[in-house]
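We keep the chain:
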Amino acid sequence: MAKTNPLQFMQQVRAETAKVTWPNRREVLLTTVMVFIMASLTAVFFFFVDWLIRTGLSAVLTLFG
């Protein structure tokens, strides 16, 4: 593997950074809202799964305890 000097490396980094397509404000806002919605749905889902397991386990322990 060939070593590059720091100046070449920085030039390559700048060239690659110029190729990046940056999101606009609307895209950032939309994806941020979608992340919050999906996190909320996931939290609600796991709340109900936890509640179901807790209720089932309490029933089993009451039955045999």
Notes: The longest helix spans residues 25-64.
